[in-house]
Amino acid sequence: MVEFRARWSALADGIEAATPAERDRTVDALRALAILGVVLGHWLVTALTARDGSLATTSPLEHMPWLAPVSWVFQTLSVFFLVGGHVAARGYESARERGVSYGAWVGQRLGRLFRPVAAVLVLWVVVAGGMLIGGADFDTVRSLVKLVLSPLWFLLVFAALTAATPLVARLSPLWPLALVATVDVWRFGLEGPEWIGWVNVAAGWLVPFTLGAAWSRGAFARREPALLLLGAGSAATVALILWGGYPASMVGVPGAPISNLNPPTLAAAAFGLAQCGLALLVREALARAMRRPTAWAKVALVNLSAMTVFLWHQTAMMAVTALGLLFSADLPGLHTVPDSAGWIAARLLWLPVFAAALMVCWAAFRTYEQAGRRPEQARAARTVAVHRPGAEPAKEITRV
């Protein structure tokens, strides 16, 4: 244990020394918190039940609606889009100043997003095909593949907004927010067609993305605008849930007639405003925390493999669930119906196992995310190493 602490301290000191003094570490901290929030949220509100020789997807939110506040804590996508808009707007302006073309800039950014996606898709095409050829139940394969693919929708939206940064970076968040409200009035108030709701897939996430772009321009240098976002967003969310007929859960619930997330509703957009306001308000506290080398090292390492963690966390959970079937088809918190406090307690005990499985996926597939670094990033990577023989250098931490 003493040796491990010494190595970790040495690694943290190396990462601290390799980090540029001008880097805003709170941006990385918020991104890491957003990714980990999504991962933990999925592990807590997604369940695979064993029934008649097959696996079916369900959720504790379906059986225990009083757990809806859990989704308020772990549905952190708005913070991810806030950070994404901030980084994209700042990065694009920096690229313009350096004479980098739009094509080169967007190609580099989208490459970082989609390179690790290819590994997930290839593996699951092989796995799904093998399961079907081996006689696996079709509904089971469909449930598993749906869990893997469902998180990818947000990457497509994020990629589209990133590519549109030159067009939307200076757009007021009020415009997409008004569009979300108009679509919801049409859908729910005027009984318009259901397909019109998919307009909000872009408009809903454009709200925090443009807030992030405004942040890059200094719009939140004072606390008052962030306090306004938190207060107005919270009040609007409560009003929409209590009197507007919107569900309390900020994630989709199987069997529910309305989902706040698929596609995003006005309630989700209002909740996102509050969440972004809170994120902007805690920047000073995060900045103080990130001055500690060990705290900063954890955040930096998460950010190095953020997409790998996001893309493989569902696979890790499913792998543990499938392996559990070798021992029993009725393991509490893993295969059983999530309808009691006992299931919650058991699921919490499974979280470290999911995390261990995710670490295996991370070790196997992180290279796909970290490939294609720029030469200066590769040089930065070589400046940080774990101080033991044969250790692999820690990957670059200067990426924006």
Gyration radius, rounded: 22 Å
The helix-strand sequence is HHEEHHHHHHHHHHHHHHHH
The total count of helices amounts to: 18
Number of strands: 2
Q: Please give the order of strands in the largest beta sheet.
A: 1-2
| Helix content range | 55-70%
Tell me about the biggest sheet? 2 strands, antiparallel
Q: Report how far apart the termini are.
A: 34 Å
Indicate the mean pLDDT: 87
Regions with pLDDT < 50 over 5+ consecutive residues? 374-400
Give the overall shape: globular
Q: How many domain regions?
A: 1
Strand content: under 5%
Task: Outline the secondary-structure elements.
Blueprint: H1 2-18, H2 25-45, E1 47-51, E2 54-58, H3 60-63, H4 68-74, H5 77-97, H6 102-133, H7 138-149, H8 152-163, H9 165-168, H10 174-189, H11 199-216, H12 223-243, H13 266-281, H14 283-289, H15 293-304, H16 306-324, H17 341-370, H18 375-381
Antiparallel strand pairs: 1-2
Helix pairs in contact: 1-15, 2-4, 2-5, 2-14, 2-15, 2-16, 5-11, 5-13, 6-7, 6-8, 6-16, 6-17, 10-11, 11-13, 12-13, 16-17
Describe this structure in words.
The protein has 400 residues and is an all-alpha fold. It has one domain. The protein is built from 18 helices and 2 strands. The chain has helices at residues 2-18, 25-45, 60-63, 68-74, 77-97, 102-133, 138-149, 152-163, 165-168, 174-189, 199-216, 223-243, 266-281, 283-289, 293-304, 306-324, 341-370, 375-381; strands at 47-51, 54-58. The chain has a two-stranded antiparallel ribbon. A hairpin with a 2-residue loop joins strand 1 (47-51) and strand 2 (54-58). Helix 6 (102-133) crosses helix 17 (341-370) and helix 16 packs across helix 17. The longest helix has 32 residues, at 102-133. The chain is globular, with a radius of gyration of 22 Å. The two termini are 34 Å apart.
